[in-house]
Specification:
This protein has 399 residues and is of the alpha/beta class. 32% of the residues lie in helices and 23% in strands. The protein folds into two domains: 171 residues, Flavin prenyltransferase-like (Rossmann fold, 3-Layer(aba) Sandwich); 209 residues, 3-Layer(aba) Sandwich (Rossmann fold).
Length: 399
C-alpha cells in the first residue's frame, strides 16, 4: 500500500461503525495521517476516545468544537488528500447528494476538493429504496467513488445487500483506485535539519537557535506524500518522524560528509538545516578556565554545503535551499538564490515575532528559476512544508 496521505475519515451512525477502529489502525499502520469526524449518531456506536487513541489526533464531532482551528469544517477538507465516509448511512448519502450541510461531516463534504470514497451500510430494504438508489446515482455522476455493500446477514437479522464492506476490502479498493498513492510515491528525498554545533572546548560550543521543526515537518510531510525520506539532522529535541532513515550529525563538516555521501542516490535535496557559518579553528582539548579579562576565539569559515552540492547536482536532481535572514528579505533572498545555484529557495526573516526559529509557525518567500516569488502568510510549519513539497512536485515531477 502507498503511504503518506492525509485521510479525512467520516463516520456516520450505523452499527457497522464498530469496524472503524480497524480501518483507522490499518491506515495508520501504512503511515497515513488519519483525521476522524464522527456524527452525533455515530458516537452511539464508537467512542471518540477509541479513535483518538488509534489515530493520534483529536476526533472532530461538532461544528462548534475548536481543536487548533476556528474553522475545522473548511481547513480539514482543504488539507485532506482523500476523504472516506464509512459507514455511510442513507441519511448522510441523502445529505451529500442534495447539498445539505447541517452538521460537521456534511459541511466538510461541500468544502472538499479531494477524492471521496463512500462506503454504504444499511438495512436491505433501505438500500433498495428508490430514493437511496437515486441519491447513489447522483454521487456516481459527480465522480464520487462508491464501494457497493456486501450481501449477507445484517444486524437486524435480515439477509441481502447492505452489509458494509470489510476493512481489508476498503483498504484494497483505496489502493486499486490509486487514492492512497501520494504525489511523491517512488521518489527519494534527502532532508537536512536542525542546527550544527561546533566545539569550543570539551564543554562549550558554537551553535544557533534552530529547533529543527521546519526540517522535521518537511520530512514528515514527504513521508505522508509517499516519498522515501532520509533525514540528516543536527542536535534537536525532536524525535525523528517514524519511517525516515535518520542520520545524526553535529558539526558542519559531519553534515557535509553525510550529505555528499547520500545525495547521489536521491532525487531531491531539501537543505533546511541552519549550518553554522564559522567554527573555532583549534578547539581547546581541556575546558578553558575563567581568569582572563577577555577571551579571543579564532574562527574560520565552514564549508558552504548548499553551494558545493549544487555544483555536483545531476540534471535529474532537484535542490532546495533555505535562507534565514534579518531585514530586506526579498532582496537578500534573490541574491542568495543566484549565488547558491539552487532550483528553489525558501527564505524567512528570523526576527519576525512568532515565526521562524523555535516557533511552530513560519512566514516564507519561495523563489524559483522563473523569477516567481511566492509569499506565504503566517502558517503552521506543517502547512509551509506542504506548500514547499507541492512546488517541488509541480516543478521537478510535472505530469
Amino acid at each position: 500500500m502507498g503511504k503518506g496521505m492525509r485521510v479525512l475519515l467520516g463516520v456516520s451512525g450505523g452499527i457497522a461503525a464498530y469496524k472503524i477502529p480497524y480501518l483507522v489502525r490499518g491506515l495508520v499502520k501504512a503511515h497515513h495521517e488519519v483525521r476522524v469526524v464522527l456524527t452525533r449518531h455515530a458516537r452511539e456506536f464508537v467512542t471518540p476516545l477509541t479513535l483518538e487513541t488509534l489515530s493520534g489526533f483529536p476526533v472532530l464531532t461538532s461544528l462548534f468544537e475548536i481543536h487548533g482551528s476556528s474553522m475545522p469544517h473548511i481547513e480539514e477538507p482543504f488539507r485532506a488528500d482523500l476523504m472516506v465516509i464509512a459507514p455511510a448511512t442513507a441519511n448522510i448519502i441523502g445529505k451529500i447528494a442534495n447539498g445539505i450541510a447541517d452538521d460537521l461531516l456534511s459541511t466538510m463534504v461541500l468544502a472538499l476538493d479531494a477524492p471521496l470514497l463512500v462506503v454504504p451500510a444499511m438495512n436491505t430494504r433501505m438500500y433498495r429504496h428508490p430514493a437511496v438508489q437515486a441519491n447513489l446515482e447522483i454521487l456516481r455522476k459527480r465522480g464520487v467513488h462508491l464501494l457497493e455493500p456486501g450481501t449477507g446477514e445484517l444486524a437486524c437479522g435480515e439477509e441481502g445487500p447492505g452489509r458494509m464492506a470489510e476493512v481489508e476490502e476498503i483498504l484494497r479498493v483505496l489502493e486499486n483506485l490509486g487514492l492512497l498513492k501520494g504525489p511523491l510515491r517512488g521518489k527519494k528525498l534527502l532532508v537536512t535539519a536542525g542546527p550544527t554545533v561546533e566545539p569550543v572546548d570539551p564543554v562549550r560550543v558554537l551553535t544557533n537557535r534552530s529547533s529543527g521543526k521546519m526540517g522535521y515537518a518537511v520530512a514528515a510531510e514527504a513521508l505522508r506524500q509517499g516519498a522515501e525520506v532520509m533525514l540528516i539532522s543536527g542536535p534537536t529535541c525532536l524525535p525523528p518522524p517514524e519511517g525516515v532513515d535518520f542520520v545524526a550529525v553535529e558539526t558542519a563538516w559531519e553534515m557535509q560528509e553525510a550529505a555528499e555521501k547520500h545525495f547521489p542516490r536521491y532525487d531531491v535535496l531539501i537543505m533546511t538545516a541552519a549550518v553554522g557559518d564559522y567554527r573555532v579553528e583549534t578547539p581547546a582539548k581541556e575546558k578553558m578556565k575563567k581568569g582572563e579579562a577577555s577571551l579571543t576565539l579564532h574562527l574560520v569559515e565552514n564549508p558552504d554545503i548548499l553551494k558545493s552540492l549544487a555544483g555536483r547536482k545531476r540534471p535529474d536532481q532537484f535542490l532546495v535551499g533555505f535562507a534565514a535572514e534579518t531585514g530586506s528579505l526579498r532582496e537578500k533572498a534573490c541574491r542568495k538564490f543566484t549565488a547558491k545555484g539552487v532550483d528553489l529557495l525558501v527564505a524567512n526573516d528570523v526576527t519576525e515575532e512568532g515565526a521562524g526559529f523555535g516557533s511552530d509557525m513560519n512566514r516564507v518567500l519561495i523563489l524559483d528559476r522563473t523569477g516567481k516569488v511566492e509569499e506565504t502568510g503566517l502558517l503552521p510549519k506543517s502547512e509551509i512544508a506542504r506548500r514547499i513539497l507541492g512546488r517541488i512536485v509541480d516543478e521537478a515531477f510535472p505530469p
